[in-house]
Amino acid sequence: MSAINIKSLIRQDVLKFLNSFDTILTDCDGVLWLHTTPLPNASDVLNLFRKLGKRIFYVTNNSTKTRDELIEKCRNLQFEAYRDDIMCTANLSASYLQNKAFTKKVYVIGSQAIAKELELAGISYCGIGPDVIHENKPYHIFEKDPDISAVIVGFDEHFSYPKMVKAATYLNDPNVYFIGTNTDERFPIDDDVVIPGTGSLVRCVEICAERKAVIMGKPEEYMAKVLMERYKIEPRRTLMIGDRCNTDILFGTRYGFTTLLVLTGVSSLSDIEKWKQSEQQEERDFVPNYYIDALGDLLSYLEELDTETS
Question: Which parts of the sequence bind Mg(2+) (predicted)?
C-alpha cells in the first residue's frame, strides 16, 4: 500500500479517484462524528456521494446500537440513512444465528442493542444486565439453562467474573455457537484514561473457554461475506473509509476494497510510517491506499464532480 495524500494529487486525478468506485463503506465514530458531534462537512460529503449514485453502507463495530438507533443518530446528525445501509454488529450477531436456523436460546454478555436485535429475529436470550458476586451464593454454583446453544460477547459495562464463568461453562459444549461482536481493544476517550473495548472482553472469554469466537465486525470475514453475498457489492469498485487502521483499513485490504484513512480518529501518519517499515505483513496491511485529514475535505472535489454531471 502506498498511502497517497489525496491533497497531493492534481484535481483531475482526485476526480478520477472519486469516479473509480460505486460503493462506499464508511466507519462512523472518528470518521463521520465524534460521539454525538458531527465532523465538519462530513454529512455533506456522504449525502453528495449518494446524490452522485454511490451506494452507501455505514459499517460499524459498535454493538451498543441497533440498526434503527443508528438510523436515528445518522438522521439527527444530517446523514441520509436507511435500514439496509446499516451494518452493525448487534444486528449481524442475530443474522448469523438466523442463517443457522437457530431455534434455541442465547447467553448474552452485551448491551440492550443485542437483546433488541435478537427479539426482532425471534430469538430468546438471557444474561443482559448486572451479574454480581453474592457472599451467600458462590459464583461457580448456578443452574445451567439446558436451552442455551449460543453465547454472544459484545460490549458490556456489567462484565463480571460470574458472567465469564457462565459463558465459558456453556462454551465447554463444542456444539454451542460462540459469537464475538468485534475485537477493538480499547476506546479512544482521553490520554489519561483507558477504556477497554469489546475485544478485551471477547479475549477474556476466549482464553477461559479455550475457543475462538466467530467475529462479526471488521476486519473479519463475516461482515465482508454479507456485503458481497447479500448486497452483491463488487470489491474492486468499493471504497472503505475509516480512522482505525487495524480494523477499517485491514478490513479493506483483506477483501480487496480501496482504502481511505481519515486522520480525525485513532490512527495517525506516524503510525502509517511505522507500519510501512514493518517486517510483519499484517502491519504492512494496515497501510491505506490513500489518506486525507478529514472526510469533509473531499467536499469541494465532489461539488465539482456534481457540477460536471449535472
Answer: 27, 29, 243
